[in-house]
Write a structure and sequence with these properties.
Length: 258
């Protein structure tokens, strides 16, 4: 696919560049600071991409980039979500700009864009409780709920997915060109915490479900490179079981130890 990538100077976005290239996608990088990009990512990887300068809050510029380069997919990892409920959800300026641009470009191109956006674990439904988000028990990063609502309202024109990881850490500080996909050990599940196995604590009145999720939270930590590969591999499928869903992930080896 031809992918417009936003957030390429971030932790996940920078690792998406080699992952997308390894899966044979054509990559158009939409970035505010090309110099910062070059300081983070191997020049051999950047040389295989098209770089467009622009601001992720400029919906018209994003739409133009999609149309001019005939992209049929988009990945957005730009923006930092508010941690606490009382903080302003400033990331929504980016989310709304990008989603609106994707919708308008889809209409003009005549096909719905395949899109991945970055969310967080608390936007998922609580295990065994459809419709009740983890954020109801663990009220951090609730802004991801606004991203989910924004994308849900645009389902007619976008084939979107919302990645919902817990903490992501790098496997390596170096970001270099990959000749072949690195693969990933992730298990994915739509709309809830992947492969969650409740313990006896779930049955404790009031605090049980909350304590069970908190106890399990660190098992859902993943590697940035694995998350990048999951997105790139999913885009290579074309159609996907994750379209229109929040996507919970866990390393397969960790799911077996719950």
């Amino acid at each position: 696919m031809k992918v417009l990538l936003l957030g390429a100077t971030g932790n996940l976005g920078s690792r998406l560049i080699p992952a997308l290239l390894a899966h044979k996608h054509s990559v158009v990088i939409f970035v505010r600071s090309e110099s910062k990009l070059k300081s983070l990512v191997d020049s051999a990887a950047i040389s295989r991409c098209t770089v467009v300068n622009g601001d992720a809050t400029n919906s018209h510029a994003i739409e133009t980039a999609i149309i001019d380069h005939q992209c049929n997919a988009l990945v957005n990892s730009a923006g930092v979500a508010a941690i606490f409920p009382w903080q302003d959800p400033t990331m929504q300026g980016i989310i709304n700009a990008v989603a609106t641009a994707a919708v308008e470009a889809s209409k003009k191109l005549g096909y719905p864009l395949r899109c991945w956006f970055l969310g967080g674990l608390t936007v998922l439904d609580f295990p065994g409780m459809p419709g009740i988000r983890v954020s109801a028990y663990f009220p951090l990063f609730k802004e991801h709920g606004l991203t989910f609502e924004c994308l849900s309202s645009k389902s007619e024109h976008l084939k979107w997915s919302l990645l919902a990881p817990s903490a992501m850490t790098p496997a390596s500080k170096e970001i270099t060109l990959l000749e072949t996909p690195r693969g990933n050990p992730l298990a994915a599940q739509n709309d809830t915490m992947a492969e969650f196995s409740p313990s006896f604590m779930t049955n404790v009145p009031y605090i049980g479900p909350y304590a069970d999720v908190v106890k399990s939270m660190t098992r859902y930590n993943t590697r940035l490179e694995d998350c990048a590969d999951l997105i790139a591999a999913d885009l290579a499928k074309g159609d996907s079981e994750h379209i229109g869903h929040r996507v919970g992930i866990i390393e397969s080896s960790k799911s077996k130890t719950q």
